[in-house]
Amino acid sequence: MREAGHPLGDLLKRLLARPDEVMLELGAGGELLVARIRAVLSALVLALPLIAAAGGSDSREVLTGMAAAVLVNAMAQVWLALARGGRQRPWLPYATATYDVTLTSAVLLLLSLLDPVAGINSMVVWCFYAIAIAITALRNDGRLTLYAGGLAIVQYAALVGYVFAAAEAPETLVSVDYGTASVSTQVERLVLLLMMTVLTATIVYRMQRLVALSGRDGLTGLPNRAWLLQRLPQVFGASRNVRTSLTLALVDIDDFARINDEIGHLGGDRVLRHFATTLAGMAAENELLARIGGQEFVMLLHGPIGSAWERLDRLRRAVAGQRFLPERGDDALRITFSAGLAAWPQDGSGASSLLKVADQRLKQAKREGRNRVVARDA
Ligand SMILES: Nc1nc2c(ncn2[C@@H]2O[C@H](COP(=O)(O)OP(=O)(O)OP(=O)(O)O)[C@@H](O)[C@H]2O)c(=O)[nH]1
């Protein structure tokens, strides 16, 4: 994997980039988790007007609080129901982040209408900005963190501006319960929100790096088996919707143990990298390629098994006809491969059934003498 020149440049580039499909899938799981946390927190909010009522508060205030708490709970249930749809709604994380931040601003605005200093000096409600920014980390999308942080800073700055502009004497904004409101404290709060955003964005970046590393094969840079098994169900789901056919190919370099014996393990590694590049050259942009074991690769090709066979067999002939020079001075090496194909959905509707069929056909290709592509059972 290529590193960008400057760590900060790399961080910003990665944060602003669309995350990898597997990352987005994990992020959809994070969205559901956030929706569940929001539902639990909202249920706790219901207790606040009841506590106020027990404390002898004004019945109108209690009823208003109750109505607001019910509304917050109803919204939390709506977000939860939408989050259960997985990645069907790409706008959902943005909608919920907007909701979380704007709800915090709305409560602060309400407080400021009762007592201007309460609106901008309240610590507890203000902390919900920080929570709203922090939980975007669970969605694995840096763009969302930057959006939520930016929104919180803009909304809070607007609220502070409004409170100071509306005050008759801004220098004497004092409250018995909330102390003195000063411009410097408010600037500090805005800086804290910025720090929270940068911190959360850095966590997202690190998480993305870890997921990317755990889903990649270190030698070839291709996705590995874990990544492939996460990704395949989504691809099958998308293809089911548009009714296209797919072909899974299990591709295996022939006699690789002998190649290792002849040119050494490092030479074998070079062969693997060269072969991975050759396969990648054949795959279309939206087709999958992964290294799932030693000398074993999986390709997911678009189209019926017949045309996939033609493409792979053409590649097989081309590879067998070329010679690979592992290192200057070495003897040129002839590489061949065998492949077993399985058609989706005819040979299996899931990853494991397709891999099983493709493996049987690969074994058949090896039994029949290697250097061949098998697309149906003997
Ligand atoms: N250089 C190198 N060799 C590897 C790597 N992973 C696995 N191998 C070797 O790949 C070889 C696989 O051998 P086999 O499973 O017998 O397969 P084969 O020799 O290709 O035989 P057929 O598949 O039947 O054609 C073993 O010698 C492994 O040590 C790797 O990352 N680098």
From TrEMBL:
<feature type="transmembrane region" description="Helical">
    <location>
        <begin position="94"/>
        <end position="114"/>
    </location>
</feature>
<dbReference type="Pfam" id="PF00990">
    <property type="entry name" value="GGDEF"/>
</dbReference>
<feature type="transmembrane region" description="Helical">
    <location>
        <begin position="187"/>
        <end position="205"/>
    </location>
</feature>
<feature type="transmembrane region" description="Helical">
    <location>
        <begin position="39"/>
        <end position="56"/>
    </location>
</feature>
<feature type="domain" description="GGDEF">
    <location>
        <begin position="244"/>
        <end position="378"/>
    </location>
</feature>
<keyword id="KW-1133">Transmembrane helix</keyword>
<dbReference type="InterPro" id="IPR029787">
    <property type="entry name" value="Nucleotide_cyclase"/>
</dbReference>
<feature type="transmembrane region" description="Helical">
    <location>
        <begin position="145"/>
        <end position="167"/>
    </location>
</feature>
<dbReference type="InterPro" id="IPR043128">
    <property type="entry name" value="Rev_trsase/Diguanyl_cyclase"/>
</dbReference>
<dbReference type="InterPro" id="IPR000160">
    <property type="entry name" value="GGDEF_dom"/>
</dbReference>
<feature type="transmembrane region" description="Helical">
    <location>
        <begin position="62"/>
        <end position="82"/>
    </location>
</feature>
<feature type="transmembrane region" description="Helical">
    <location>
        <begin position="120"/>
        <end position="138"/>
    </location>
</feature>
<keyword id="KW-0812">Transmembrane</keyword>
<protein>
    <recommendedName>
        <fullName>diguanylate cyclase</fullName>
        <ecNumber>2.7.7.65</ecNumber>
    </recommendedName>
</protein>
<dbReference type="InterPro" id="IPR050469">
    <property type="entry name" value="Diguanylate_Cyclase"/>
</dbReference>
<keyword id="KW-0472">Membrane</keyword>
